[in-house]
Specification:
Chain B: Residues 373-581 form the Histidine kinase domain. The complex is a heterodimer of chains A (127) and B (747). Chain A is of the alpha/beta class. Chain A is 43% helix and 19% strand. Chain A has 5 helices and 5 strands. Chain A has a 5-stranded parallel β-sheet with strand order 2-1-3-4-5, with helices on both faces. Chain B has 27 helices and 22 strands. Chain B folds into 5 domains: 2-148, HPT domain (Four Helix Bundle (Hemerythrin (Met), subunit A), Up-down Bundle), CATH 1.20.120; 171-305, 2-Layer Sandwich (Alpha-Beta Plaits); 339-395; 400-578, Heat Shock Protein 90, CATH 3.30.565.10; 583-746, OB fold (Dihydrolipoamide Acetyltransferase, E2P). The longest helix of chain B has 30 residues, at 2-31. The chains are: A alpha/beta (127), B alpha+beta (747).
Chain lengths: 127, 747
């Protein structure tokens, strides 16, 4: 599989540790990973990336622009109105999950997660 | 694998070192009653991030404590807990425990006493209790005692597909029927029925992938004219073999986990009640005639990235790995240092370089002290000094990547404004340059790239007419060359239209009409102040700054700009910059008893001229000198800088630097980036040396003609000349036409 054919995934998380873990897990599973440190940066990276990513994984609790605002903003971009967005979060409560859903999140993974769960989730939306 | 986890763990501890002080600061603000909701969010996030990170490494004790702490802070965040001094004290104490637990995990601290943890957990739980019966997060509400919060160590080994094959035995499988109908919301959330189908297929072992039957139900599909494009009207029935003992039903539930609210679905087992309950199979049987069974095409499955089966082998290791990694930690820990301190170190090293150079020159010049043995030892110190200098520079060095990547956006925005299709290719992003330089590169690069899109690349139509691809390309590259950094901006556009540039320059009075200039000289004109070839000021590059500003910015960084243009093929801008702004190579010159520094990068040549033969007075009274057939304005440095005349030295030979006086004089031909030259009349040249740049504006005030100061080896302060300003003021005085007339006469 050449670099061009790899599925590109954008991960948005303010924790550099999480970013490292995500990068490792996804790149070992054969994905091309690009990253943003919060919602604002995520949007920037998303719009600048060439080729564009095929899926997004985002944290919810972030400074500047949180995951909810990020999802809302991504859905407003015409080019990304239907990109799969997976929330990565420890927020297990239904209300938050529903809020993410109503804003257009495709799915979610609860932290702590393992690589298998993560890769499963990405495969689930990038088939 | 270990290495990467190692690195991530290192990042985690670094992050903890940033988050813990943030937590402390936040708690301090709350205690001083200066906090805002953002402060509370920030401290919550800090503990939350530590917990999340720790969970990835199976740092159990840390995770458990952070979890309780986070829950207590959540009460504060949701406003259910009012922070009084007692609560804040508990939070401070808990912070200390958290910090000690981090140190424990890092193996830089002793194991934290279990009793102390328990005591703090109890206090935190008391706060959670105060939050009332409905805390914001159900996680908090349901599990105040987080015994059930089991951290999961991230298994970062390969993704083993065999896991899914487990349990498939010889016994003939039962079949499960899954019926689902997605709502249109499923699609607007970025999901797709295809994802669900492939998700189901993946539940089967590879060799049985074909054993899945898929039937599409189209009965709800209206006639094409009535079909709203965004509506979801298809339903699907999938039959899968279920191996005995497998958790297939559970796995299927997992596939539909995210779409429960936007997709109707049912699972039924063959020959069981499920089928009877369901009306679906009958319906499907009806449509089965017109809609054939759709097996999922194999290539769809193949397009899914799969982990290389090879790395699955070490997958069993990670459980024990983190503990081992933790032990190795301390040795290669990194520290964060205030940039000011490194700057100071840099300054001192620079002075050491000068001190060493002056020592060397004193020893070699003065014949009496000449001693080969001494010189040999000095050479060792010289090498060491250089090494130290490079090592300090390396500390401040950063790759140009960040600046370069920002340019993608610049080009994208510029090309969409200009209705052009332009790709930016980055090369050498890892090239390292001094931090101060990087910060100052963004603006000039932004402008040059906008310019390249606007003026360099032609419209798609013009490109196709010229037999080029409609998409233009700009290459932005960086590399090191002989102690400098070379940045190239190359485009495959139309090149510079020299005729038009010359016409414009004449129209704007930048050059005299009838001047005969070489191609390169004409190209350089685009850097002249007030020059713009675009007939109308476009949105892009015409933002009130021309290439002259870019040139000035690059020059201020001690750099040079070069243009090479091939008509029809494109233009290449080359920026050559020093690796640092802290040190420069200078020529030490003497003038009226003062030693001054001229940056070597702006010196063209050093010549001795005959006053009678080579110096001319032009009608306006100023002087020019003819060097190799080119007339250059003379600058009497002493007068220009109004240096006091030295008493009693009128007869000294070095003071003959006046046109009209007898004999010879030494001139230093200097050039600015636009190629404009001037000849500095100096009394003598003392040496060439590396000097440390000290801001004069910061310590004194701005002086015309002087860019900075430095301290020489002998401890004296010396001024670094701002060659560019000197040239500009000299050329302004001199009428260019008069210059040409003299050149003709001299020829």
């Amino acid at each position: 599989m050449t670099a061009e054919q790899k599925v590109r995934v954008l991960t948005v998380d303010d924790s550099r540790t999480m970013q490292g873990v995500l990068r490792k897990a996804l790149s070992e599973a054969g994905y091309d990973v690009i990253q943003g440190g919060d919602g604002v940066e995520g949007l920037e990276v998303l719009q600048q990336a060439s080729p564009a990513p095929q899926a997004i994984i985002t944290d919810i609790n972030m400074p500047r622009m949180d995951g909810f605002q990020f999802i809302e903003a991504v859905r407003k971009l015409e080019a990304f109105s239907r990109i799969p967005i997976i929330c990565l979060t420890t927020e297990t409560d239904e209300e938050k999950k529903n809020r993410a859903r109503s804003l257009g999140a495709t799915g979610w993974i609860a932290k702590p997660f393992n690589a298998e769960k993560l890769v499963w989730a990405i495969r689930r939306v990038t088939a | 694998m270990g290495d990467v986890m190692d690195d991530i763990l290192k990042i985690f501890f670094e992050e903890c070192d940033e988050l813990l002080p943030e937590l402390e600061r936040g708690l301090g603000e709350i205690s001083e009653e200066e906090s805002s909701q953002e402060t509370i969010n920030a401290i919550f996030r800090a503990v939350h991030s530590i917990k999340g990170g720790a969970a990835s490494f199976g740092l159990d004790r840390l995770v458990r404590f952070a979890h309780v702490y986070e829950s207590a802070l959540d009460g504060l965040r949701s406003g259910k807990v009012e922070p009084d001094q007692a609560i804040i004290k508990t939070f401070f104490l808990a912070m200390d425990v958290l910090s000690d637990l981090v140190a424990e995990a890092k193996h830089t601290g002793d194991e934290v006493d279990e009793g102390r943890i328990d005591e703090n957990v109890r206090k935190l739980e008391a706060i959670i209790g105060q939050g009332g019966d409905a805390p914001a997060s159900s996680e908090v509400g349901e599990t105040p005692v987080p015994e059930d919060f089991t951290p999961v160590t991230v298994d970062l080994g390969g993704f083993d597909f065999d896991d899914h094959a487990e349990g498939f035995g010889e016994t003939p499988p039962q079949r499960l029927t899954v019926t689902f109908r997605p709502h249109s919301e499923l699609y607007s959330r970025g999901d797709d029925a295809r994802n669900l189908l492939l998700g189901l297929q993946e539940l089967l072992p590879v060799e049985e992938a074909g054993a899945m039957d898929v039937v599409c139900s189209t009965q709800e599909l209206p006639a094409l004219v009535d079909l709203p494009a965004e509506d979801a009207r298809l339903g699907w029935t999938v039959r899968l073999p279920e191996p005995p003992g497998s958790a297939l039903e559970e796995d299927i539930q997992a596939v539909f986990d995210w779409v429960g609210d936007v997709c109707d679905f049912q699972i039924a087992r063959d020959g069981q009640a499920g089928e009877a309950v369901e009306p679906e199979p009958a319906e499907d049987a009806a449509v089965q005639e017109d809609v054939p069974v759709v097996p999922v095409p194999a290539e769809m499955v193949e397009s899914v990235p799969q982990a290389d089966p090879a790395p699955s082998a070490p997958a069993s290791a990670p459980a024990s790995a983190p503990a081992k990694i933790g032990r190795k930690r301390e040795q290669n820990a990194s520290i964060r240092v205030d940039i000011g301190r490194i700057g100071m170190l840099m300054d001192m090293v620079g002075e050491m370089v000068i001190g060493q150079a002056s020592l060397e020159s004193a020893l070699t010049r003065d014949g009496a002290l000449y001693d080969p043995e001494l010189l040999k030892r000095l050479a060792v110190i010289k090498t060491l000094t250089r090494d130290i200098q490079e090592a300090v520079m390396a500390i401040r060095a950063q790759p140009v990547r960040n600046v370069f990547q920002r340019m993608q956006r610049v080009v994208r925005e510029a090309s969409s404004l200009a209705n052009k299709d332009v790709a930016l290719v980055l090369e050498g992003e890892e090239t390292e340059v001094d931090r101060t330089l990087i910060e100052n590169l963004t603006d000039p690069l932004t402008h040059m790239l906008r310019n390249a899109v606007d003026h360099g690349i032609e419209s798609p139509q013009a490109r196709q007419a010229a037999g080029k691809p409609a998409q233009g390309t700009i290459w932005l590259s960086a590399r090191h060359r002989s102690g400098r950094i070379l940045i190239e901006i190359r485009d495959d556009g139309g090149g510079i239209n020299t005729r038009r540039v010359l016409q414009t320059a004449i129209k704007r009075g930048i050059v005299a009409s009838g001047a005969s200039l070489g191609e390169n000289e004409i190209n350089e004109l685009i850097f002249a102040p007030g020059f713009s070839t675009a007939e109308t000021v476009s949105d892009l590059s015409g933002r009130g700054v021309g290439m002259d500003v870019v040139k000035q910015a690059i020059q201020n960084l001690g750099g040079r700009v070069n243009i090479q243009s091939t008509p029809g093929k494109g233009t290449l801008f080359t920026l050559s910059l020093p690796l640092t702004l802290a040190v420069l190579d200078g020529m030490l010159i003497e003038c009226r008893g003062s030693t001054m520094v001229v940056p070597v990068s702006s010196v063209v040549e050093l010549v001795t001229v005959q006053m009678k033969k080579d110096v001319y007075t032009i009608p306006d009274g100023s002087h020019v000198v003819s060097v190799r057939g080119r007339c250059i304005p003379l600058i009497y440095l002493g007068d220009e800088l109004t240096l006091p005349e030295e008493n009693g030295t009128q007869e000294e030979p070095h003071h003959m630097g006046r046109a009209g006086e007898e004999g010879q004089m030494i001139v230093l031909v200097v050039e600015n980036e636009a190629g404009a030259r001037a000849a500095l009349v100096v009394d003598g040249v003392r040496d060439q040396a590396q000097v440390v740049i000290k801001s004069i504006e910061k310590n004194y005030r701005q002086i015309k003609g002087v860019s900075a100061a430095t301290i020489l080896g002998d401890g004296s302060v010396s001024l670094i000349l701002d060659v560019s300003t000197l040239i500009v003021s000299a050329t302004k005085r001199v009428d260019t036409r008069a210059l040409e007339a003299i050149a003709e006469r001299a020829a």
